[in-house]
């Protein structure tokens, strides 16, 4: 039986780890005990900033720490499978940044490992736990806008090309779809489920990752999602769900909204951020659950199948680096 206070280990010290760790410290039941980085000096600097007791120069040292209960994997996508699998094999529960892996096969391997070892595993799709997104899902499920027919969502910004940058480097899992496109795809999945068909177009960067993408997800009886993402053009990061009896507009940024408009009526919420998904992990792990009912492992696998199908149509194959 785990104690109520869960000791967390953070693998990597980049921007996302910095922001999420700051939010971890706001959640009851969380003690950020350890951090690792390939450079011990960076781990120590991160530890000092966030009040973390232990700093390691290798993630394997963190995984060997018997006092760590939960591991948050915040490395670039290309390392997610390696680190998350090692954490599960070390007997740790895992929260892994999205996209959970580079390929469906890798994701299936992580899910099988977690289930075989009876350990908690969740992809860090924080949008699912935003209070307004929870409201959107409930409203759509309860026919507040009738039958959902169309979803439109975009996420893009200009990011200067640099072959060594993680957003452009193939070995790091770079490209628009895995980093940005996963948000609109996951939103469509949350409301309409896994599509019957996927159609994608896009352009390749010199590093053979997708620079941008347009994706059409098709569902039974003509329902569809029109989604786009880009690392070369800036979009308004809004979303709209249109039904037979109304519409829901999700304000920018739709992946962490503070405002939605439902059939002309505004709803607001200032309590966004990463704390909601951290609370979910704490509640599930302390209850002995091995996955979240709001962000199931089957959901993660379904989104990965859609992303992989789109990537293959654009000409991106991560099996060469996975």
TrEMBL record:
Source species: Lentzea tibetensis
Gfo/Idh/MocA-like oxidoreductase N-terminal domain segment(s): 6-122
Gene3D superfamilies: Dihydrodipicolinate Reductase, domain 2, NAD(P)-binding Rossmann-like Domain
Keyword field: Oxidoreductase
Protein name from the UniProt record: Gfo/Idh/MocA family oxidoreductase
MF GO annotations: nucleotide binding; oxidoreductase activity
Family label: Belongs to the Gfo/Idh/MocA family.
Stored PANTHER family: OXIDOREDUCTASES, TRANS-1,2-DIHYDROBENZENE-1,2-DIOL DEHYDROGENASE
Domain GFO/IDH/MocA-like oxidoreductase intervals: 134-248
